[in-house]
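User: Teach me something about this protein's shape.
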Amino acid sequence: MYQSLLSVLLMGMIPAASPLPYSASSLSIPISPPAMEQLEISKHLSASGVIVMDMESGQSIYKKQAEVRRPMASLTKLMTAIIISEQHDMDEIVVIPNWANSIEGNRIYLPEGDRMRVGDLLSGLLIASGNDVANILAVYHSGSVDFFVEEMNSRAQTLGLKSTSFANPSGLDDPVQWSTPQDMAWLVMYALGKQEISSRMKRRSQTVWTIEGKPISLVHTHVMMHGDNAIIAGKTGTTIGAGQCLISVVEEESKSYLVVMLHSLDRYGDMKEILNIILPDKTVVADVS
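Assistant: First, the predicted structure itself:
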């Protein structure tokens, strides 16, 4: 579903001079669907940037400053995951460097000198949101974080993300690290078309192992995925500059929605309110305090 819908959504979005990241033969002629009814959601959501997209039609059914640039914290890791998943085999082996546990921010504390498969590191990136993993994969791929960031920005341009800029692979605050809810929604839709990414975004937990046999437990950072809320996939991000950021993929019977929030003061409270609107017959179950 995601890939066919994305083919339609990206028509007219990717600059004509840019190489397409998929076969042109897979693209279909876009036909504008009937306009969907816009959601009535409280103007008092704490998130300053929000977009709610109907994933079947690709239409936005709610927007709040969706084209305003803001820091996006660890939502950044989706671009890191895209580059790695597109260019590496999941069974490739990476040695954990001695600098990994000095990386700033959230870490999963990988054992120095041990070896891990790329696929297991990708799980640590998307499930537990490890900043250490993001930097390890960046250096493994490009030789340095700076070179990797250059590729991130080039990839953003190829995908037509004109209001997105990257400064690091993990999402730490930086004056030139920003995006918009609209751009992030496009990026999520593209990422969900890749099985190696979508499957990990859906895992509530996973235990991965180093080649040397050491277990590493991963728990998804999206709190509401651990309750019965129809949220089947997601990604979190939090920094001082970005506030609380959240991606949620919602499925209930025939309904499918994507919600992107930037700079929230209470992302789970905001998400609960949105769920109560888009799924009025669904009881939200989770401690979102």
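Now, about its shape. Residues 145-158 form the longest helix (14 residues). The two ends are 34 Å apart (CA to CA). If you'd like, I can walk through any region in more detail.
User: That's plenty for now, thanks!
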